[in-house]
Amino acid sequence: MIIISQQAAHALVVDDDRGVRQALQLGLTLEGFEVSEAADGQAALNRIEQLLPSIVVLDVTMPGLSGVEVVRRLRAQGRTIPICMLSARDEVEDRVAGLAAGADDYVVKPFSLAELAARLHALVRLHQSSARRPLLLGDLTIEPARRQASRGGHDLGLTTREFDLLLTLAQHAGQVLSRTQLLARVCGSSSG
């Protein structure tokens, strides 16, 4: 039994095969994910920038940017988003290459949708639990689990929205976030 949290995890499915994307969108939606799609590596990078998904399900072999190259670029940017690679290639070297590039998991096609969904839920949980550890930025301490922020040991007394904004900015330090991205993260909306 899968227990869905208040807000469903957002999965970005990236595959050049439209049929695979559609099947994954339907299956993962039934497994409790909100799902978006991209048809190639460059589109994936653009969608990740726009949507800030909870997890990426990424095909290895695509025209243009391969899945491995997408992972390399994301990790080079300092992005820690969980990534699960999908591939028909089942050689050990292929799996090692994907994981060495920075993927968090590697699933060989054909696969069980139930197993894939369980792996994705586990990766999201793991990422969220690490995201709940205190963040230290100079003399600023942000404690996501307690929803408190302090500077120089003094509580900042932030409102809920202020805390969410500070946490989002701290989690994406060094990255430029658009107004749409901030609204999606802080308010749960892409309008505004």
Topology:
Layout: E1 10-14, H1 18-30, E2 34-38, H2 41-51, E3 55-59, H3 67-76, E4 83-87, H4 92-101, E5 105-108, H5 113-131, E6 135-137, E7 140-143, E8 148-151, E9 154-155, H6 160-171, H7 179-186
Parallel strand pairs: 1-2, 1-3, 3-4, 4-5
Antiparallel strand pairs: 6-7, 7-8, 8-9
What does this entry show, briefly?
The chain has 192 residues and is an alpha/beta fold. The chain is built from seven helices and nine strands.
The average pLDDT value, as a whole number, equals: 86
General shape: elongated
CATH fold-type name of the largest domain? Rossmann fold
E-strand count: 9
Going by CATH, the homologous superfamily of the largest domain would be Response regulator
CA-CA gap between termini: 36 Å
Number of domains: 2
Can you walk me through this structure?
The chain is an alpha/beta fold. The protein has helices at residues 18-30, 41-51, 67-76, 92-101, 113-131, 160-171, 179-186, and strands at 10-14, 34-38, 55-59, 83-87, 105-108, 135-137, 140-143, 148-151, 154-155. The protein folds into two domains: 10-130, Rossmann fold, CATH 3.40.50.2300; 132-186, Winged helix-like DNA-binding domain superfamily/Winged helix DNA-binding domain (Arc Repressor Mutant, subunit A, Orthogonal Bundle), CATH 1.10.10. Helix content is 43%, strand content 19%. The strands form two sheets. It has a five-stranded parallel sheet with strand order 2-1-3-4-5, with helices on both faces. A four-stranded antiparallel sheet has the order 6-7-8-9, covered by helices on one side. It is elongated.
